UniProtKB/TrEMBL annotation:
Subcellular location(s) per record: Cytoplasm
Key words, A-Z: Aminoacyl-tRNA synthetase, ATP-binding, Cytoplasm, Ligase, Nucleotide-binding, Protein biosynthesis
Family stated for the protein in its record: Belongs to the class-I aminoacyl-tRNA synthetase family.
'HIGH' region, short sequence motif: residues: 10-18
Protein name: Tryptophan--tRNA ligase
Gene3D superfamilies: HUPs (3.40.50.620), Tyrosyl-Transfer RNA Synthetase (1.10.240.10)
MF annotations from Gene Ontology: tryptophan-tRNA ligase activity
Catalytic activity: tRNA(Trp) + L-tryptophan + ATP = L-tryptophyl-tRNA(Trp) + AMP + diphosphate + H(+)
Taxonomic lineage of the native organism: Bacteria, Bacillati, Bacillota, Bacilli, Lactobacillales
Residues involved in L-tryptophan binding: 134
CDD domains: TrpRS_core (cd00806)
Enzyme class: ligase
Function statement: Catalyzes the attachment of tryptophan to tRNA(Trp).
Organism from which the protein derives: Carnobacterium inhibens
């Protein structure tokens, strides 16, 4: 079976965007591919993290993976910092990369545009190289991500090809897997922007996976729509379109069905339907997360075993990289 790799960084609490754009797709792909899923904490520290929050979120994200349906028997799940090979491979890739290609990353351009050049964190600049290491170490060919990460997977392909051409065929060439409906879930307050929990976002703009039903109802009722007043799936109504996309990702219905369903009705009823659809999906998941977190040892055991397996696989690739580069080895 082909390998699929993906991860979420434990910065801020995970959102409905992370769930629909990433986790939900992993769950549906896990029967087709060998899944390797990480809680990518090395990525999280590209911006300062409160140490206690980082710890708490890392285990919570693991619980969310399992509660959402990632089968720990069939997939490898681990915390990135437990597998030292990632940081090491990232350095080897760094020495096969160019400032120019990293400078072209849209996410870097966005994140750095607000600060003066001198104070842009180096980690934010170099981070796609760590992401490339994550993917290439496992020979992953499928990388299920949201649209915002596609460019990083493309860079990973370039780096892999370059390494293979310079040395020998060490790496498989990965492909991003993006689900059309959930590729980009938009902010509820500004539907031109990706839904994200970054500090610049208005809290009413995002739904957290662990938000209570009341909060979800409140946030959806405040979601920005338009003055047209008719539920329609069109680019002229980005707020309504985003809500339809949300619903369709969850219940698998077509946008046209939703439009038909609310043909004679107003936004209030439509939003109630959206909120209840989200709650129906998230509430059972939240209960499972809470249940799983009551026994952290069980999660820790799975993560420990995951790190052991991940370490074994990644070490083989790392050895190949080192051998090809020409590092002296003592047999
Ligand atoms: P991160 O932690 O920002 O987001 C995790 C995943 O959620 C997706 N996502 C969204 N999808 C649709 N709509 C949204 N509003 C939305 N917000 C987030 C992201 O596309 C991502 O798939 N660098 C990555 C983590 C990473 C990784 C990897 C992913 C590290 N190494 C290797 C794949 C393979 C990141 O920062 O994702």
């Amino acid at each position: 079976r082909k390998v699929m790799f993906s991860g979420i960084k434990p910065t801020g609490d995970p959102t409905l965007g992370n769930y629909l754009g990433a986790i939900k797709n992993w769950v549906s792909l896990q029967n087709t591919y060998q899944g390797i899923f990480s809680i990518v904490d090395l990525h999280a520290i590209t911006v300062h993290q409160n140490p206690e929050d980082l710890k708490k979120r890392s285990i919570e994200i693991a619980a969310i993976y399992f509660a959402a349906g990632i089968d720990p028997k069939e997939n490898i799940v681990f915390i990135q910092s437990h597998v030292h090979q990632h940081a090491e491979a990232a350095w080897l890739l760094t020495c096969n990369s160019y400032m120019g290609e990293l400078n072209r990353m849209t996410q870097f351009k966005e994140k750095s545009s607000k600060s003066v050049k001198e104070s842009v964190p180096t980690g934010i600049f170099a981070y796609p190289l760590l992401m490339a290491a994550d993917i290439l170490l496992y020979g992953a060919e499928v990388v299920p991500v949201g649209k915002d990460q596609v460019q990083h997977v493309e860079l990973t392909r370039d780096l892999a090809n370059r390494f293979n051409n310079t040395y020998s065929n060490v790496f498989k060439i990965p492909k991003p897997f993006v689900n059309t409906g959930s590729a980009k879930i938009y902010d509820l307050q500004d539907p031109t922007k990706k839904m994200s929990k970054s500090e610049t976002s208005n809290p009413n703009g995002y739904i957290l996976i662990m938000d209570s039903p009341d909060i979800i109802r409140k946030k959806i009722s405040k979601a920005v729509t338009d003055s047209i007043g008719i539920v329609n799936y069109t680019d002229e109504q980005p707020g309504v379109k985003n809500l339809i996309d949300l619903v369709c990702c969850i219940n698998g219905r077509e946008s046209s069905e939703i439009v038909e369903l609310f043909k004679e009705k107003g936004y209030k009823e439509f939003k109630e339907y959206v909120a209840e659809t989200i709650i129906n999906e998230l509430e059972p998941l939240q209960n499972k997360v809470k249940f799983l977190l009551e026994d952290k040892h069980q999660i820790e055991n799975i993560l420990k075993e995951g790190a052991r397996k991940a370490s074994e696989i990644s070490q083989k690739t790392l050895d190949e990289m080192k051998k090809n580069i020409g590092f002296y080895s003592i047999g």
